[in-house]
Protein: ABM domain-containing protein
Amino acid sequence: MASSTTMNPPGISVHITVHIRAEEIPAFLHAFRSTFDAVANEPECTLFQVYQSPQNPGEISWVEHWSASLEYLTGVILNRDYILRFLELTEPMYARPREARVLTRVAGLGMVKRGEGSG
Structure:
């Protein structure tokens, strides 16, 4: 049985949702893969999960947890070449504008079960 661990790490959580035109979904996911790998390899990225709506496959969301400030993300990470290339390639695939939220964690209200999140 998996054990759970309470979490209250500092940092921020970035929640992004994009709406991709149906015919562009395979190309978007292909482009997303290399960006996912690059973001996941950033030392300050502590979690990166991607989700797809079963009712609307073009609705793709992801959650990134960062042990960094918003200033670092906007000043450094968002200006990385791989992010700029990804946006240039994928923004024309959007059916409507990207939705983005930056949130901070609430102390004492978080957990992850060991083994969850892989795969």
Remarks:
- The radius of gyration is 15 Å.
- The chain has one domain: 17-103.
- Strands lie at 4-6, 12-20, 45-52, 59-66, 94-104, 111-113.
- Residues 1-8 have pLDDT under 50 and may be disordered.
